[in-house]
Specification:
heterodimer; A: alpha/beta; six-stranded mixed β-sheet; four-stranded antiparallel β-sheet; 10 strands; 32% helix; B: alpha+beta; Alpha-Beta Plaits; 2 domains
């Protein structure tokens, strides 16, 4: 599903972030990307949805090298990748319903489809009670649920979550991870970048550890540390 | 596509309402720029008109010293009228000329005391179609045997013509410059409304919106701003120009100001269409720039 082949990334200001990364993630896998801040987790995820371009190497998502993708094709790539952010990135002046619907609106989907899919996604994340609330009125956990609903409303085969529990308390964090796990079991490939040790340790999933831009460990059923 | 159009309209109106203050600023900027543009356009048109009127008053005076009969005069008038380039020929007999002269100056001088006989010649006033025909027509007129002398102010005509050309050329150049400046101002004003929604745009891109899809609501918003700005400028311009015409007609009645309603309607239409085009183009340029700055 996702394949990185000898990927390196340096920013134009000369900072090197990733060195010769190779990684293969199969369909419907659940993978934690762990490592300290600045290890390159976020950059690696951004390469997948073409928010960043690799300096060298291949980034293959669903059999397509996204580094070679025509600019006009990028939106279609992104419709197949749901992204969840630490800071949620919800549109502040829109309700939960509108935020989630927005991701379908931009695809030009008919209104009846939008309504049905939005309701399904909100039900899945347990936010049906809060559909008409604005982001300001939501707790951190609720915001993250709304963000996840927006990411999956289009049924993308891949879901990326960049520090999804970074701003949440332990209980809420656990709920969110459970939710991501549930989505994974609905046949979605899920990548979670995190430095939440307790969650990684108790989930016993595949762990890819990054340090200073290099993969230092790739372990099935792993924990946060060695 | 229909559901998209509805979405674009709703988004545009929403953004317009949300940034009410910014929208008002944009409308005001567009109106002020267009009013300046319109006033300048009217100034150039009027200058051209004044110069044109003055030069169209230029005619050739052909003098006949010999005493001729009315029949002879009529015949000559017809012949002169048939010359190429001639618009109108008027005959002013020496008696008539003398009477006019006396009417004008007679109150100050006792002319009949000084002059025992009429010293003035018969005059044919020949109007030509365009000022540049004057020298050629004057030459043909002087070929007639009866005509003793031909006069026209050639040098003056040349100067007038240079002035007309300068006003037209300079005016056109300035109109282009001012249009460009107006576009720049409008682009930058609308850019502020676009920049205020940069986060929205980046989120739209993240969830897979195409650039075209992102652009439409902004372009529609730009059109709304442009139409409103154009309407305001049209109203301001119409009332201020009407007031100017009234004042000028009272104070300087000899100045031929353009009051042709059809021409003015065209200018007003230009204001509204121009405003719309400016708003649309401004929005397009601004949103394209913001989109390009994001990967």
């Amino acid at each position: 599903m996702i394949e990185l082949v000898n990927v390196s990334k340096s920013f134009s200001n000369g900072v090197d972030v990733l060195f010769n990364i190779s990684l293969n993630i199969g369909k419907e896998e659940f993978v934690f990307i762990v490592g300290p801040s600045g290890a390159g987790k976020t950059t690696m995820m951004k390469l997948l949805y073409r928010e960043e371009m690799p300096s060298s190497g291949k980034v293959i998502v669903d059999r397509v090298n996204v580094a070679e993708l025509d600019y006009k094709q990028v939106p279609y790539l992104r419709r197949n990748i749901g992204v969840v952010f630490q800071d949620y990135k919800l549109l502040p002046k829109r309700t939960v319903l509108e935020n989630v619907a927005f991701a379908l609106r931009v695809t030009g989907a008919p209104r009846s489809t939008i309504r049905r899919k939005v309701m399904q996604a909100l039900e899945l994340v347990g936010m049906l009670r809060r559909v008409n609330a604005f982001p300001d009125e939501l707790s951190g956990g609720e915001k993250q649920r709304a963000c996840i609903a927006r990411a999956i409303v289009n049924n993308p085969p891949i879901l990326l979550a960049d520090e999804p529990t970074g701003n949440l308390d332990p209980t809420t964090s656990w709920d969110i991870i459970q939710l991501l796990d549930k989505i994974n079991r609905r046949n979605t490939t899920v990548l979670v970048a995190t430095h939440n040790k307790s969650i990684v340790d108790s989930m016993k999933r595949r762990v890819v550890a990054l340090e200073n831009g290099r993969i230092v460990r790739d372990q099935l059923l792993g924990g946060y540390g060695v | 596509m229909f559901s998209n159009l509805e979405f674009f309209l709703i988004e545009a109106l929403r953004s317009f309402r949300r940034g009410a203050l910014m929208s008002l600023v944009a409308i005001a900027t567009i109106s002020v720029s267009l009013v300046i543009f319109g006033l300048f356009l009217l100034l150039v048109i009027n200058l051209g008109n004044i110069v044109g009127t003055v030069s169209s008053r230029m005619d050739i005076a052909a003098y006949v010293e010999k005493d001729i009969s009315l029949e002879e005069a009529g015949e000559l008038q017809l012949k002169l009228g048939k010359l190429p380039g001639v618009e109108k020929v008027e005959f002013i007999s020496k008696t008539e000329a003398w009477r006019n002269f006396k009417q004008e100056f007679g109150t100050k001088l006792e002319l009949d005391d000084i002059m025992t006989s009429n010293p003035l010649p018969h005059t044919f006033s020949v109007k030509v179609r365009t000022p540049d025909l004057l020298p050629a027509v004057a030459k043909q007129v002087s070929n007639f045997q009866l005509i003793d002398e031909v006069r026209y102010s050639g040098k003056f005509i040349d100067q007038i013509r240079t002035l007309v050309d300068a006003v037209r050329l300079g005016g056109a150049a300035l109109v282009v410059l001012i249009s460009f400046a107006t576009l720049l101002i409008v682009v930058n004003t609308i850019r502020l409304t676009v920049l205020a929604r940069e986060t929205d745009i980046s989120i739209m891109k993240l969830v897979g919106a195409t650039d075209t899809f992102i652009k439409w609501p902004f372009i529609i918003e730009g059109v709304i701003l442009g139409v409103l700005g154009g309407l305001v400028s049209f109203i301001v311009l119409k009332f201020s120009y009407d007031a100017i015409i009234l004042r000028v007609a009272a104070a300087l009645p000899f100045l031929p100001l353009v009051a042709d309603q059809r021409l003015l309607a065209v200018i007003h239409l230009v204001m509204i269409v121009g405003g719309t085009a400016l708003g649309m183009l401004g929005a397009y340029i601004s949103v394209s720039r913001v989109l390009k700055s994001e990967v």
